[in-house]
Amino acid sequence: MVVLAVTWMAKVGREADVIGVFSKLTEESRKEPGCVVYQVHRHKTEPRRFFIYEQYKDDAALEAHRAAPHFLQYAKKELPKLGERIEGHLYEPLG
Questions:
Q1: What is the 3-state secondary structure (H, E, C) of the chain?
Q2: How far is CA 46 from CA 13, 17, 51, 95, in A?
Q3: pTM, rounded to two decimals
Q4: C-beta separation of 39 from 81 below 8 A
């Protein structure tokens, strides 16, 4: 199992657009055979801040996600126009 935790910040006034793109990305990512969890969260008091929690079966599944057409379209092409990735960290469960 591999976990990816990403923090994302929308540009001012682009929050609704970001939510629309994340909605499409979430729908498609959850269809991937190696995707266990794909959940986007919005900060309760900072509406421009988003947290994405992803779980994949293994490193190969994460790489397949990163190469998928929907990821390239939404995460690499559309989202950068609407904000920026603040940080991303990979984790693996203990035991």
A1: CEEEEEEEEECCCCHHHHHHHHHHHHHHHCCCCCEEEEEEEECCCCCCEEEEEEEECCHHHHHHHHHCHHHHHHHHHHHHHHEEEEEEEEECCCC
A2: 13, 16, 11, 34
A3: 0.93
A4: no
Q: Fold for domain 10-53+60-83?
A: Alpha-Beta Plaits (3.30.70)
Residues constituting the chain: 95
Digits of tens for pLDDT over the chain (95 positions)?
Answer: 999 999 999 999 999 999 999 999 999 999 999 999 999 999 999 999 999 999 999 999 999 999 999 999 999 999 999 999 999 999 999 97
Could you tell me the residue ranges of all domains in the chain? 10-53+60-83
Q: Are 65 and 30 in contact (CB under 8 A)?
A: no
Q: How far apart are CA 84 and CA 75, in angstroms?
A: 10
